[in-house]
């Protein structure tokens, strides 16, 4: 059984901490803007305190947010983007399913078959089963890695088919601009893990939903966040 989140030795109530962390990871806000939004609600919290809360509690909340059991009918879309950190290029490899749900992402210094194989191995370990189909762009490393890791899985390699994976990078790009870049590969990895776990719950899987369905989805997501943070709704 998952242990409850501990807020011992923290002066502020758990509800305020959970709300501040939610604001930071859910919206394209800087730490100082989160500080200002909390002040508007009568809570005097420094941006450094918000940063420490995000580092401490963000990963804990992300681990407690549970997804529905993966299916063998899933389609995995894979893509990678370059992120420059301290003048050096790093690659953020990401996998999303047919609903745009981020399955996994990993920061690597390489853009080759070895890096693609590492991503596929992590995906199989986390998901527990292979997908029905794999969709990528024209990067040859994906085909080589797929042949070695999951040779029986159908693979489609076409630039136009991979818009779902490419679009999944856009929210992180917006956050990168707000944060004025990332300071280390580890910092990027930690932020991306929590950011994607939060976004998975709050963004509806389809843009063709009614306004009521979208509203109910967000209420369910907020309830899941409060449960993960061990905060009473």
Q: Can you describe what's shown?
A:
The protein contains 9 helices and 5 strands. With 233 residues, the protein is of the alpha/beta class. The chain folds into 2 domains: 14-64 and 203-228, no CATH class; 75-186, Nucleotidyltransferase, domain 5, CATH 3.30.420. The protein has a 5-stranded mixed sheet with strand order 3-2-1-4-5, sandwiched between helices. α5 (140-149) links the parallel β4 (133-136) and β5. α4 (113-127) packs across α5 (140-149). The chain is globular and about 55 Å long. It starts with 13 loop residues before the first helix and ends in a 5-residue tail after the last helix.
Quick take:
Helices cover 50% and strands 15% of the residues. The protein has 233 residues and is of the alpha/beta class.
């Amino acid at each position: 059984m998952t242990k409850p989140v501990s807020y011992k030795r923290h002066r502020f109530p758990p509800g305020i901490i959970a709300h501040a962390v939610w604001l930071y990871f859910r919206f394209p806000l800087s730490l100082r803007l989160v500080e200002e939004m909390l002040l508007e609600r009568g809570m005097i919290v420094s941006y450094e305190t918000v940063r420490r809360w995000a580092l401490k509690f963000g990963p804990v909340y992300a681990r407690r947010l549970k997804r529905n059991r993966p299916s063998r009918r899933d389609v995995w879309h894979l893509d990678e983007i370059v992120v420059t950190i301290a003048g050096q290029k790093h690659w953020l490899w990401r996998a999303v399913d047919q609903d745009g749900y981020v399955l996994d992402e990993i920061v690597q210094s390489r853009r080759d078959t070895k890096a693609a194989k590492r991503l596929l191995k992590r995906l199989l370990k986390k998901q527990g089963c292979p997908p029905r189909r794999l969709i990528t762009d024209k990067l040859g490393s994906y085909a080589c890695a797929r042949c070695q890791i999951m040779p029986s899985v159908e693979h489609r390699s076409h630039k136009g088919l991979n818009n779902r994976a490419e679009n999944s990078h856009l929210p992180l790009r917006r956050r990168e601009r707000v944060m004025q870049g990332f300071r280390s590969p580890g910092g990027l990895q930690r932020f991306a893990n929590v950011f994607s776990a939060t976004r998975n719950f709050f963004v509806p899987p389809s843009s063709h939903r009614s306004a009521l369905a979208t509203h109910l989805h967000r209420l369910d997501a907020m309830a899941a966040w409060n449960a993960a943070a061990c905060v009473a709704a």
